[in-house]
Write the structure tokens for this entry.
Amino acid sequence: MTSHRPTRLVGVASAAWGIALLAWGDTLYASVSGHRGSSIDVTAVRILGLRYAAQSILQLVRPGHGVKLLSAIDFTHGASMGALAARSTAHRRAATVSMVAAAAIGAAGLLADRDGSRS
């Protein structure tokens, strides 16, 4: 029997990040980027927070299911943020933080579910 405690811990971390982005997206964006975000920037941050919160529900309710898919989503998001950071000086800092967070959560998910038997 596989313990899903590590996967659930990743789910809790993902939920916390998502809730923070939803609740304080404008403040977090401003503190990371050094300037207030436009309404589009803040909306994008909040949508990202919603995605992390939704993803965490799956990690908490069905740990061990879809781990590779969820990690692939995080890695794809991280790659898109890397591209944004490379192209946009205005968004570079925020995109870099988002890229690192996505990579960390994606990698943590894979490491937490090392057997990968149901992914």
